[in-house]
Write a structure and sequence with these properties.
Number of domains: 2
Largest sheet: 8 strands, mixed
Number of strands: 23
Radius of gyration: 17 Å
CATH topology of the largest domain: UDP N-Acetylglucosamine Acyltransferase, domain 1
Structural class: alpha/beta
CATH superfamily of the largest domain: Hexapeptide repeat proteins
Number of helices: 2
Low-confidence stretches: none
Helix content: 10-25%
CATH architecture of the largest domain: 3 Solenoid
CATH class of the largest domain: Mainly Beta
Strand order of the largest sheet: 5-8-11-14-17-20-22-23
Mean pLDDT: 92
Distance between the termini: 31 Å
Length: about 230
């Protein structure tokens, strides 16, 4: 692989992603495609890795046949919209996305990943769990057996997903959230940090607390838009 390309750019995530990619893939060049105005406030240099940013507002990007991609944003709705935008403009398909799983992760041999997964350090995933397209799993997450993690989900650090849980497309779990066995989280749900989820959550809502309860509709992530 000559280079790997991040769709979108968030400076607070770039250093983490570059380290995971450097540890996982034989690639020394990471290119970020910045499609909206963003101010760079934090350092993101990684020794031995050449990191470049192309501002698509002022420059043109040319896709090469060997290019692979990853999502450098974590908002589930933004991931889906970015893929639509870049697919139309640059002929980028789901199969062009890399599977990036850090070597420190403990992954069951029966676990399956779709393209576009980015799994950070120290993650545990048990038997027969399926992780969908464009999922971002952050450090220290523990996922149990026979789970289904829907496309574009983001699971933040330290979350615990017990066995036979279903996460609908475009969900986000906050840091340290705990989901008990057998529950289903609907499409486009945001679960707040530290929540303990003991029952199913309907689609398109924001929910948090211990026990977790629905607070309001997730107006920014409308179910139809994800």
């Amino acid at each position: 692989m000559n280079r790997i390309i991040g769709i979108g750019f968030v400076d607070s995530l770039a250093a983490i992603q570059a380290e995971v990619i450097s540890d996982t893939l034989n690639v020394k060049r990471i290119l970020y495609l910045k499609n909206v105005p963003t101010e760079i406030k934090r350092p993101f240099e990684v020794p031995g890795v050449k990191i470049e940013i192309v501002d698509l507002l002022t420059s043109r990007f040319t896709k090469e046949e060997s290019d692979q991609f990853f999502f450098s944003v974590v908002n589930p709705q933004v991931k889906e919209k970015l893929l639509r935008e870049f697919a139309a403009e640059y002929d980028i398909k789901k199969t062009d996305f890399a599977k990036i799983v850090h070597p420190s992760c403990n992954i069951s041999t029966t676990c399956t990943f779709q393209e576009g997964v980015l799994a950070e350090q120290g993650i545990i995933i048990s038997s027969y769990t399926n992780v969908g397209f464009g999922v971002h799993i952050k450090r220290g997450v523990n996922i149990g057996h026979h789970c289904r993690i829907g496309d574009y989900c983001t699971i933040n650090p330290g979350a615990v997903v017990s066995g036979t849980v279903v996460l609908g497309e475009g969900c986000m779990l906050g840091t340290g959230a705990v989901l008990i066995d057998g529950i289903t989280i609907g499409k486009g749900v945001l679960i707040g940090a530290g929540s303990v989820v003991t029952k199913d959550i309907s689609p398109g809502v924001i929910a948090y607390g211990n026990p977790c309860r629905v607070i309001r509709d997730n107006d920014k992530w409308t179910v139809d838009s994800i």
